[in-house]
Each structure stands twice: as structure tokens, then as C-alpha cells.
Amino acid sequence: MIKTSIANEIGATIHKTTQKALQADGITQLAVVGELDALVVDSLDVDVLSGIPFMITNDISLRPSKQEVTIQGCENMYYGSRQPAGTIGSVRRTQTTVLRAPSSSTVIWPGQYIELDVPDHVDPDSILALEPRKDCSRSDCEWPSPHIVQAVARKIRIPNQTPHPKHIPRHDHLCQVLPTYILYPHPDVPKSSNSTLVAPSSPTPHEQSLSVQLDPDSILSKSMHSEFSRLVKEYDDVFDKNISGYNGAAGPFKAVVNMGPVQPPQRKGRLPQYAPNKLVELQHKFDELESLGIFQPPENLGITVEYLNPSFLIKKPCGGHRLVTAFTDVGRYSKPQPSLLYPMSILPSEQSPYGSTSSYPTL
């Protein structure tokens, strides 16, 4: 199989096809748009997904016991956890596992949890990256939120930390899990000399407003035309296609985390075991947000990092991915706001239409 965007990028001729393909669960259909020497599929996690015919044609052999791939008998690549000393690049095998709801529908009330079984091919006590599924039958496909979860004796528990009950249909595609790994810097990889990200150059004054076509029918007077031209130049940044971020028109937005008496224990940061192209996309998202001033390195702000939260790429309904940082574990150690009601003045008993307020709860 080949991803549609890759087939279009290399200029391949895509022919119509009536063939169908299913995911590894044997139920979910893939969106096959055509074929060439392979099936052309939308929303494929990797650029090319090959099988035995591909390996025969290109003389590729596999040694699972050594976690080794040999290409045309002369080039060896390693995948998984095995990586010989002196090698920098490796082929990492990723496997997304879909976790399905039980055979009977259930409701998870706030504060309760649902317990799911981990398949046999997954380490029974592994640390997994959990992500929501967009092909679930529920209207709310944002729960469970992405976070790192610990499997214990081949079971994981997903709590409902939202204020609303969650109805889970039977056999629903509740979520998916990926293996995680700790990223260690390789000693043989040279550090980039240009480690600082260069922000995009700001346009010259009135550059963006040049794209505005003012009075194409020549019906405005000279004074009105000059007034419109002055306004367009004055608000030149409005016509910039690259939005730099929030402009502060409604005031600053602040978030306060009310931590409890116990702080979360320190841990090593983990990354979902994404395919290489998806890891590159994750890095590009961070670079883009850093260039816009949304992210900054902690050393630039005088902050000492004590806790790390993982970031995920979640599929958008309209295509592409969005960056999501999971603060689920921090939420377990923070104290929630007791009420969302605005403060109210309690009238004295002689002014209250209900008489004395001593027998009524106060806000």
C-alpha cells in the first residue's frame, strides 16, 4: 500500500479499482482510492506499507531473532530495541493496538473507571501511550484524552475525570495504544551548530496590504479612496496570512494550576513510538509554535524543569494532525475548583425576601 499524498508527489498514475482492504482488526475498512503497483490508500500511518511480494521483488530478507533487515544481501538495518554500537540510524517497527469496549454497553460515571485487557502481543506490564480513536461510534470521540498509561498484569484502567458520564457502546473502538520509549541522545550524533530556531522574518510595512484590491470599479471619490487606502495601510497586519498568535484584544488569558500538598513524582520523559515521518511532523509542529512565540525553551525563561508531560499528534476530522500535550497526570495532583458560580452577595435577614438566611446554604 502507498499513501495517496506520496503517490501524487511522485506523479504516479492512479487507476480505478474495486479492491477493498481492512485494518489489522479485520473490521475497519481502509479508504482505497485507486491502485498502481500497489493500493493507494488515504490516511495511511506510513508512506509505504509493504508485504511479501515487495520483499521478493526488492530482495529483502528478515531475521526476527536478530531484529535485522537485509536489503539485497549487502545492507543491514536493525529495528526494535536492538541497535549495534556505532550505528546511528535504525528502522523502528511501530504497531498500533486498538482497544475495544466490552461485549455489553456500559456507562462510566465521573470518578469511575473502565478496565480493558491488553492483547497478548503487548508486554503485560509495559508503559503505553494512549490516544483516542476518531472512528468510534460515540459522538464524543475526545475521551479518553491522550496520556501515558501503565499496564499492570495485562490490564489498564481508564478513569473518567470529566464532569459528565460516558456511555460506551459495546465493541466500541474506545482508544488505541502505542509502545513508548525513552529518548537518549546518541554520543555519536553531532550536535547542530545552529540550535536556535530562527523566527520568520517580519514583512516590511504595508507589504501585506498590497494584496488588497481597492475600488476595482472606480466608483469612490478621491477623498473616500484616499481614506480607505489610509485605513488599509494602518491595519496592514490584518491582511497577513500568517497569524502570529493572539493579539491581546480581550486582555491576557491566564491559567492557574492549584497544586495539592503532594507534587507528582519525577519521571523520565517518554515518547510514543511513532513512525519516522510522524516524528518529523511532531518536531515540525514544535518548531512552528516556537517560531510564533507560543513555546519557549525553559532556559530562556529561567525555569528549571521538574516534570515532563508527553505530546501527541491527534488526527483532525478534516485531515492533518494537531499537537496535544497531555496534562492528565498533573491533574491527579491538583485541586479542582469547587464551583464555577460567580460570587453572590447575601442579603441580611431583614432584607431577604425569604426571611432569615441561616437555614439556607450560602455561596
Topology:
Blueprint: E1 2-3, H1 4-9, E2 32-35, E3 39-41, H2 52-57, E4 60-63, E5 68-71, E6 75-78, E7 97-100, E8 106-108, E9 113-117, E10 127-132, E11 147-150, E12 155-159, E13 166-168, E14 173-181, H3 222-234, E15 271-272, H4 276-291, E16 311-315, E17 321-325, H5 328-331
What does this structure look like?
With 363 residues, the chain is α+β, with helices and mostly antiparallel strands. Among the domains are: 2-78, no CATH class; 97-179, Deoxyuridine 5'-Triphosphate Nucleotidohydrolase, Chain A; 276-333, no CATH class. 12% of the residues lie in helices and 20% in strands. It has 5 helices and 17 strands. It has helices at residues 4-9, 52-57, 222-234, 276-291, 328-331; strands at residues 2-3, 32-35, 39-41, 60-63, 68-71, 75-78, 97-100, 106-108, 113-117, 127-132, 147-150, 155-159, 166-168, 173-181, 271-272, 311-315, 321-325. The strands form 6 sheets. Strands 7, 10, 11, 14 and 15 form a 5-stranded antiparallel beta sheet that branches. A 3-stranded mixed beta sheet has the order 1-3-2. Strand 2 and strand 3 form a beta hairpin. The longest helix is centred in the C-terminal third of the chain and has 16 residues, at 276-291. It is globular, with a radius of gyration of 28 Å. The termini are far apart.
List keywords for this structure.
3-stranded mixed β-sheet, disordered C terminus, alpha+beta, 5 helices, 363 residues, globular, 12% helix
